[in-house]
């Protein structure tokens, strides 16, 4: 699997420029077209508009210097309404969305653009929580897995594209109790074999105790600088804000983190 058009949302927050660096790296590795997309909402103040425009102009310059086929698009209106339509119009197959500091569990979910995007975007969706602004090139990627792995093929393709972009190592992380007399669950074996077919070297680790906490400890102690958590259904995405192990990690990750949802 290779991406052809990659979207990344740009706003006034510096985190969106770090997210865009991930999108650029994948665009280069996949020889894909890159779309830098900004929306000016009606209640956005002038200062934030200027920050957004500066970020967009800078990223356009960087992408052109890297010989990436890039398009910059700015629209006025509501992000949750405009972005899904633009994704379809531009035939995008991957969208990066940077979570803002306000998009957290303590907030009312329906107030944020991400609520609409989770329901409406039909492309692969990578929702990013940026913690370290100065680490746009992950060397260690931690991939937590449950005993059931939905959308395995598309998630494998996304992780393979990341590793190709950054020459990263990949660690699959699971609970030790998942292995039975018959071996690891079939979904995990399939996931591992999929990565190996993409020529991705795979390490495996396990942890005990509270799932979210063990993921955090593993990321810190093994110096992983990106966590990629899969979301197999819209209910799982909703729990990003209301609580579950993946939500706990995404709210306060020890490093940059992606919640990946395959195209529906």
Please provide a written account of the structure.
With about 260 residues, the chain is of the alpha/beta class. The protein folds into 2 domains: about 5-130, Rossmann fold (3-Layer(aba) Sandwich), CATH 3.40.50; about 140-255, HUPs (Rossmann fold). The chain is about 40% helix and about 20% strand. The chain has helices spanning about 15-30, 45-65, 80-90, 115-120, 150-165, 185-195, 210-220, 235-240, 245-250, and strands at about 5-10, 35-40, 70-75, 95-100, 125-130, 140-145, 170-175, 200-205, 225-230, 255-260. It has a 10-stranded mixed β-sheet, sandwiched between helices. Helix 3 packs parallel to helix 4, helix 7 (about 210-220) packs across helix 9 and helix 8 (about 235-240) packs across helix 9 (about 245-250). The longest helix is centred in the N-terminal third of the chain and has 20 residues, at about 45-65. The radius of gyration is 18 Å and the shape is globular. Mean pLDDT is about 85; it is low at about 105-110.
Topology:
Elements: E1 5-9, H1 14-30, E2 33-40, H2 46-65, E3 70-76, H3 79-89, E4 94-98, H4 113-120, E5 124-129, E6 140-144, H5 152-166, E7 169-174, H6 186-197, E8 202-206, H7 211-221, E9 226-231, H8 234-242, H9 245-251, E10 256-261
Parallel strand pairs: 1-2, 1-4, 2-3, 4-5, 6-7, 6-9, 7-8, 9-10
Antiparallel strand pairs: 5-10
Helix pairs in contact: 1-2, 1-5, 3-4, 5-6, 7-9, 8-9
């Amino acid at each position: 699997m290779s991406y052809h058009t990659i979207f990344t949302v740009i706003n006034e927050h510096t985190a969106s420029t770090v997210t865009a660096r991930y999108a650029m790296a994948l665009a280069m590795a996949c020889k894909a077209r890159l779309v830098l997309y900004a929306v000016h909402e009606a209640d956005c103040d002038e200062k934030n508009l200027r920050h957004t425009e500066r970020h967009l102009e800078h990223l356009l310059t960087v992408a052109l210097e890297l010989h990436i086929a890039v398009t910059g698009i700015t629209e006025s209106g509501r992000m949750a309404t405009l972005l899904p339509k633009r994704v379809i119009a531009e035939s995008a197959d991957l969208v990066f969305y940077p979570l803002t500091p306000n998009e957290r569990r303590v907030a009312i979910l329906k107030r944020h653009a991400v609520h609409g995007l989770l329901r409406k975007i039909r492309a692969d969706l990578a929702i990013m929580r940026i913690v370290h602004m100065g680490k746009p090139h992950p060397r260690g990627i931690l991939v937590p897995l449950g005993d059931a792995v939905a959308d395995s093929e598309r998630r494998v393709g996304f992780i393979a594209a990341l590793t190709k972009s950054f020459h990263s190592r990949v660690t699959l992380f699971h609970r030790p109790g998942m292995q039975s007399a018959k071996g690891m669950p079939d979904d995990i074996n399939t996931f591992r074999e999929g990565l190996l077919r993409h020529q991705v070297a795979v390490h495996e680790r396990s942890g005990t105790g509270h799932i979210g906490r063990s993921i955090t400890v593993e990321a810190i102690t093994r110096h992983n600088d990106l966590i990629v958590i899969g979301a197999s259904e819209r209910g799982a995405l909703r729990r990003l804000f209301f609580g579950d192990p993946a939500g706990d990690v995404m709210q306060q990750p020890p490093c940059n983190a992606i919640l990946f949802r395959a195209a529906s």
